[in-house]
Amino acid sequence: MAPQPLTDLEIAETLSGLPGWRAEDDHLVRSYTLAGHPAAVALLVHISVAQEELNHHAELTLVYNRLGIALNTHSVGGKITELDARLARRIEEIAAGHGVSG
């Protein structure tokens, strides 16, 4: 079954379980600040592996020790779907293992 855009209520429910994430311009977005550039790159690489496993990819922006993430689903017109929520939850798990909190 093809992914369907989440309703505003479903997005709010998703965000309630994802501290630090917000909805902005039809994206789920989050930014992490890490100890330095190598730590930020390591997190980016780990996220890229998870993206391949889930066959769903984020827009990732790396600036020195900051990693920005923006998620939406292009196949439904750039809206937020359960695929984005699933990847955001996985990214939170990965980030915790890289010393990122809240």
Would you mind describing this structure in some detail?
It holds the Pfam family Pterin_4a. Its EC number is 4.2.1.96. InterPro entries: PCD_sf (IPR036428), Pterin_deHydtase (IPR001533). There is one protein chain. The chain is α+β, with helices and mostly antiparallel strands and 102 residues long. The chain is built from 3 helices and 4 strands, in the order αββαββα. It has helices spanning 8-16, 37-54, 82-97; strands at residues 22-24, 27-33, 59-63, 66-71. Strands 1-2-4-3 form a 4-stranded antiparallel beta sheet. The longest helix is centred in the middle third of the chain and has 18 residues, at 37-54. It starts with 7 loop residues before the first helix and ends in a 5-residue tail after the last helix.
Summary keywords:
single chain; about 40% helix; 4 strands; alpha+beta; four-stranded antiparallel beta sheet; globular; about 100 residues; 3 helices
Question: What's the gist of this structure?
Answer:
Helix content is 42%, strand content 21%. The chain is of the alpha+beta class and 102 residues long.
Question: Secondary structure elements and their pairing?
Answer:
Layout: H1 8-16, E1 22-24, E2 27-33, H2 37-54, E3 59-63, E4 66-71, H3 82-97
Antiparallel strand pairs: 1-2, 2-4, 3-4
Helix pairs in contact: 2-3
Q: What does the largest sheet look like?
A: 4 strands, antiparallel
Low-confidence stretches: none
Strand order of the largest sheet: 1-2-4-3
Average pLDDT taken over every residue: 96
Distance between the termini: 33 Å
Helical coverage, percent range: 40-55%
Structural class designation: alpha+beta
SSE ordering: HEEHEEH
- What would you report as the Rg, rounded to the nearest angstrom? 13 Å
Shape, please?
globular
Strand content: 15-25%
DSSP summary: helix tally: 3
Counting DSSP E segments of at least 2 residues, the number of strands comes to 4
